[in-house]
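User: Need the bound-state model for guanosine-5'-diphosphate:
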Amino acid sequence: MTSSNSILSITVLPGKSKNGTAENFSEIILSPGDVLSIVGATGSGKTAFINDIEVLAQGDTVTGRIILVNGQNPPDDFIRDPSKKPIAMITQNTKCLADLTVHEFLEMHLRSRKISDISLLEKTIQTANKFTGEKIAAGMRICSLSGGQTRSLFIADAVIISNTPIILLDELENAGIFKEKVIEELRQLRKTTIFVTHDPYVALLTDRRIVMENGTVKCILEPGDLEKDVLFRISEIDKELSAMRERIRGGELLFENKGGTSV
Amino acid sequence: MTARLITVAGPPSAGKTAVVRQILKNLIPEFKVAYLKIDVVQAWEDEELAEEFHIPTKKVYSGDMCPDHTGILVLQDAVEWANSVDADYLIYESAGLCLRCTPYTTHSFGLCVVPAVSGMHTPLKMAPMITFADAVIVTKIDLVSQAEKEVFREAIRQVSSETDIIETDALAGTNMRYLMKRIFELSETRNDADQLRGSPPLGVCTVCIGKKDVGWQNHFGVIRPLDAPDTLFRGE
Ligand SMILES: Nc1ncnc2c1ncn2[C@@H]1O[C@H](COP(=O)(O)OP(=O)(O)OP(=O)(O)O)[C@@H](O)[C@H]1O
Ligand SMILES: Nc1nc2c(ncn2[C@@H]2O[C@H](COP(=O)(O)OP(=O)(O)O)[C@@H](O)[C@H]2O)c(=O)[nH]1
Ligand SMILES: [Mg+2]
Ligand SMILES: [Mg+2]
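Assistant: Bound-state model below.
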């Protein structure tokens, strides 16, 4: 197993656009602890970008990109042995087709990662339950979990079982899980993280922002403190929206009162 | 010169032809490849691949006979045909129906293609096809999450702790370099008698071949009424 504090950098080398033209950057380096976001219109190639990192592409994906680990071609072990792979990706897909219970699934995943500490199984379910409103139980069938529950379980699985230094999250905000809790958890563990996102709050939280277009990286932004004020405002808006969301979910009626906040 | 034989097995729509396409992309034009498809009633792969890659192809419909049994009946002829057209490789795509048998012969390089979207029990259900293979190609990894992919790998490992597992998005060709490495290293197919690696459960059943009528009254030979303690012989 790769420990989460081993020094590991990832280099992305350019590929080609959907029409075959060369991509316009020299290299993108992810250093340990970096937090990035990827934004862009639907279909612009965001998922394809993180997928390249997950499979450690060697010019053998639709984009033609090449991924290096610590500046070198990745060792075959990283690609072929799940227990050595330093990357965990949570896909956009919120359906899991496995005909197993949550317990069986996690047990098999522990085995595939050659981990004998069986207590991680319970810990994974506990962590997942921090992210989701409706609780997951060990005896539930994986394929009967909701989209949000599946997403929560896979994130917890990536953090606790895979425990990789690099985590790739595709549209975290989509399944209605408690995204702040996930971001908080990842921040505490100092994971190198990429968020593919359409959510302004998540995008502005990250240090670097990759903008995609037509299957290629259009530009890379490092706003530094420039967006500080906007980030503060968005976080206030986001808190208000979250509070409203929870109340709607709880079955309340919301209406404007004189003070301008919802009651 | 003897063409190297590659046998591609796996359930219907597993991605066998998609894998074959990737192999062809990597072999052509450096090598000459011939392709044989065996299926029960309908198959189009031979025509598609002939048009796409300009390679010699053939197709055999097994009809009433077990397609894998048909395979071993015609394979010797097929290797001779591949040699006659100067092919370096002969790729044989099986029908992949009942999963009880394995179409791999001892002299061929056997590939088992299984999609990552199959249930976790699928590897157990098709255990012979997996254990006798030289490599298991897990396709459609683009459609599942990473954890699921790793658990599926573990499910294959439960059936076979040794077989090489190669995970791919067969449409993009991801990780195909690991398969190609082994294909480039294949030695020429031996000339001595070739055999199936696994034993078929009944081979081909001369009793039931082509017979569709329900009811033992309509049949001769070995029959079995529901309440009879054992099979009976019924002469014409
Ligand atoms: N560089 C590229 N060359 C060729 N095809 C590409 C390239 N990048 C992406 N694609 C293809 O374009 C399609 C859309 O890409 P992708 O799924 O990555 O979009 P996305 O930005 O994640 O969209 P969404 O926001 O809807 O999830 C996919 O089929 C992908 O394989
Ligand atoms: N997304 C995806 N689709 C695939 C993959 N492999 C095959 N397919 C699709 O699955 C279907 C069946 O594939 P095919 O190669 O014809 O299967 P065969 O019956 O085993 O030969 C086709 O529509 C393929 O395009 C893969 O790795 N990913
Ligand atoms: Mg996407
Ligand atoms: Mg086919």
